[in-house]
UniProtKB/TrEMBL annotation:
One GO molecular-function entry: sugar-phosphatase activity
Superkingdom, natural source: Bacteria
UniProt KW Hydrolase keyword: yes
Name of the protein described by the UniProt record: HAD-superfamily hydrolase, subfamily IA, variant 3
InterPro entries reported in the protein's UniProt record: HAD-like_sf, HAD-like_SPP, HAD-SF_hydro_IA, HAD_sf, PGP-like_dom2
Keywords assigned: Hydrolase
Organism: Beijerinckia indica subsp. indica (strain ATCC 9039 / DSM 1715 / NCIMB 8712)
Length: 224
């Protein structure tokens, strides 16, 4: 019996260096809508679902968040993000990690809270073709992180249960979603969250970035 794990990866801050581009894009969108929010507060929300993002906005700013405003914010963010897309690069070791898993016949998929309108540029930078590799985006599920739907859908694409999966993510929202679908959570520091935060959320191991995971792949059951 093949007992090698299945890897389910977040995208932003996990495989591509794009978290701060998202932060700046959201800041531009919020500024246009006249919603004051500090950059550090925006960073803390990257990776969560749009619904949770909206609820936290309401709590922290006390402004009216109508469905029309939510839609405008999403469109403004996507437009602003496209302006930053040229600067987005894969994180160190990301391509090599995916290539190694493929070569070793260890299944992997990508599950991102972003919609394809923003994820497409990240996937292109990473060299991943969503028509050839399993990619699940916010467009494909009803709820995003910290709900487990994205990872459940990604595991289904690989025809494997999440209980046999390793979820790799940079935010507490990834790790919480992993716990909710009984997957093993592994954190990376490349999105800006600290090791202590990721461990408190339930991360089994925390690595610096994809290159560090590749160096320690044997610790996660990935034979090389």
């Amino acid at each position: 019996m093949d007992m090698r794990p299945v890897f389910l990866f977040d995208l932003d801050g996990t495989l591509v260096d794009s978290v701060y581009q998202h932060v700046l894009a959201w800041q531009e969108a919020l500024d246009i809508e006249g919603i004051p929010l500090s950059v550090w507060r925006i960073h803390r929300k990257i990776g969560m679902s749009g619904g949770l993002f909206t609820h936290q906005l309401l709590r922290e700013t006390k402004v009216e968040i109508s469905p029309e405003r939510i839609d405008r914010l999403r469109r403004l963010h996507a437009e602003a993000y496209r302006h930053h897309a040229a600067k987005i690069k894969p994180l160190p070791g990301a391509r090599e990690l995916l290539d190694t898993l493929t070569r070793e016949q260890i299944p992997w998929a990508i599950a991102t809270s972003g919609r394809m309108e923003t994820a497409a540029k990240n996937l292109e930078a990473l060299g991943v073709d969503p028509s050839k590799s399993p990619v699940v985006t916010r467009d494909d599920v009803k709820y995003a992180k910290p709900d487990p739907d994205l990872f459940l859908a990604a595991a289904a694409r690989l025809d494997t249960p999440t209980t046999a999966s390793i979820v790799v993510g940079d935010s507490i929202w990834d790790i919480l979603a992993a716990r909710r679908c009984q997957a093993l959570g592994v954190g990376v520091l490349s999105g800006g969250y600290g090791a202590d935060e990721l461990e408190r959320a339930g991360a089994y191991r925390v690595y610096e970035d994809p290159a560090d995971i590749l160096l320690h792949l044997d610790e996660l059951g990935g034979r090389r």
